[in-house]
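Please, structure for the following, as tokens.
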Amino acid sequence: MKLDENYLSFFLATLLSMGVTPVALAESTCLAEEGERQAEELTSEDKIANNCQSPSQQLTATQPLTISLYEPEVSEVSSIQEVEEPFTEAKYLSPEFSPPPPQTFQVTQAESAVVQIIGVSLNPTPGGVDIVLETATQATLQTSTSVDGNTLTTEVSNAVLALPSGGSFQAENPATGIISVRVQQIGENRVQVIIVGEDAIPTVTVNPRDTGLVLSVTPEEIIQITVTATRTEENPDDISRSITIIEREQIEQQSNMSINLREILAREVPGFSPPDLQRNQNGTLRGRPPSYLIDGVPIDSNGIRGSFLNISPDAIERIEVIRGPNAVYGSEATGGTINFVTRRPSEVPVTNIRVGADFSGADNSFFEGDSDGNVLEYSLSGAISPKVGFRVNFSRERTETYYDGEGDPIFNFRPLDKSEAFNALASLGIYFTEKQRLNFTFNYYYNERAENNLILDQSVNELPAGTSKARAIEVGNQDFIDTNPAFNRNTLANLVYSHDDLFFNSQVQLQAYYTSKPESQGVQDGRVLLQEVYVSQIDVENWGGRLQVNTPLFTGASLFWGADYKNDRPSNTYDIIDAEEFDESGGRTIRKIDERTFIPEYTVGELGIFSQLKWELGQDWVINAGARYSSFDVSIPQYTSFEGIDVEGGDLNFSNVVFNLGTVYKITDQFNIFVNFSQGFSLQRFSELLTFPEEGFSISEDVDDLQPQKVSNYELGVRGTWSSFEFTVSGFYNDSKFGVVSIDRGDGLFLPVRAPRRIYGVEATVDWQPFNKLSLGGTVSWQEGDVDVEDDGNYLAITSTEISPLKVTAYVESEFIKGWFNRLQLIVVGDRERAFDDDIDSSPVESYTVVDLISSIQIGPGTFNIGIENIFDNFYFPVESQVLGGTSNDNRRPGRGRTLSFNYRVSF
């Protein structure tokens, strides 16, 4: 049968784009065996299913195993952009099965006996290097290849290493762009070839040629990172605003010390507030609340900020952060967007296991009392068939008691310590055709307080505020009757259908999702302010959907357009506890005797329509412009407030339009400048108005208080990326007319006041690798903010719980001994007195520094990791504890003292 030229061209281009060099592509023997089938119908998957292989794929000892590796050409990313309200490209945004051919595939020859590899040699080539494995006898070798970060590993599963020198083979810097090549025995009949790229991820093909194993890397073509928090799969250099990408390797590094995602974000993201140990603190980004998403699914609620505990770091592939207000996914992103991208299915079977433990310094020593925690993770990923892939990920974590730098247990009203967490992630991807796919992701996260035996020592509040730290009293196991101890549960289901060419060459995506987040915040003695002992019970339920289309218009231009809908239903009730029985039992008996509404169960529906134009003016200039229209329907029932005030319910409707305009100009391939104007918006958090309403408050009459807050953001920045050095510098200014500031009403409780706000600042990042064994860098974040409380032009400082003081992070990484990695890092939080001087805060913020150490060493088939947080055991108070501790000592919670963690990770 004669092959059609168009089919040959298409098939050849497909193989090359996968990084596969087709040795015997011209041979038509396999196709001829298909009989009456048309050549157009025969895909590469058909050939594999029918065991259709070229004779040249059988390797013998007279033909050394040759693996050709090269970095694929980075093609133009068409029709992708940094958008404020546009399109979500589900290819990476949703946890779909998308086997990455340029990064990992498997080639298997016929089975054979175990063969000896008696020689390894390196031969430089114009494109890289040939790595030749010389075998002792004629035999067939079986190989598979996988990629992790910049490391490519080819495994020979039926061989033993028998080099004349004995042991393994190691070569440093064998070619430009290649850091090292290592050939080693990892099992009884398994040999690994490990190639570490400097900037690029090489791809691999297995060819029966005499030249051996070839790695070709183009040094100037670095790994292309795609960003999906902009709702599209996008090259960072094309985004006209500040972004931060936290890759899987960084997540694993920081998880060696803490599984608290807020701590990871604080250390890695400029502009993000310093870490805190409270269970319900989500942090701020550039002085405003960010919007949190999992695979593009909003997990925020209008009424309740709730807990940061929604997903385990073990289930996250990367974290994408857009810094600054935007409307990419609708409302609530006045501080930015933080998208947690879950881990993907892989084409070849991969199993990951991690076991570990951690210890806090109890009484200035480890391994005593209940200072220990532990962690266990297991994941399995692979392909059920050529068109179906899966991943399952399970993790269990038990946190230890947290101790401060003086060796005392830390008391928190909503603690993270002494908790047990379980996370289960399941992802399934189905490819109906090359252009149609369906992806389903399910994530379940549960975190509960494992031991409930501490209460607040109320005597600290008898001392002047700001003079004593909060202290805990151990009372024995508490008995919760008709109420719940502290827990968080988050359930997420996400379904995405994608079609890459449905009409007018458009890419179309349809998404539906559901989330549920019940939560109990544990018993709290609130008699100082609320005159009650209570347990706060929160329930949030969201569901929604999204339709998005990417339509090419003309050369260099494309239009993203579509619609989305989100339904949000929050509520918060307080279980009132028998205070007399609580006191008589020494805090051990928690009996519910009443229930009060703190936030009524109301609903917010948001319908959005968006469009975004991207226009590439040549190779150096990109312009983006777009708009989003949103309509809100709010339904609030009649209810009685916590203080007994009857409030008449009502239905409200708002609409809002926001715009964005940005441009990137690439001065050189390595250096670019960007300018951006964007608007983000959020509804007034009704919980802040509905919790303690004043007499006579009316939903229908006080509409001005409920108008959405629109934030206009202006940003200018520069970026530079070279092979061993990169940096970013950006400055921003944003303002809003209907901002919200909390004002003490005189009894220690705060009321929200709508007032103009403005926030401005500068952020910078730098990373430098002076040579292969050493890397260093850091970030600097400075921001300030003002609020016009009386709306009279007299601006005062915004509280330090929202405006972070100067924050500096720095790190030094080294691997001077092969296989032993070390990272020393620090975070410095500066002083801030301005809000205290303006009588906004009750206490100024004093500077503090925390230094950490992370160390990893390869042992056997895996890696042993050690993390030491606060290595110098510094005693300090985090920012929020300093500010709130100026009002009452029970809020003056120290930070963690020295904490030791270790774990062992293995993949196979």
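The two ends are 43 Å apart (CA to CA). Residues 1-112, 211-215, 217-226 have pLDDT under 50 and may be disordered.
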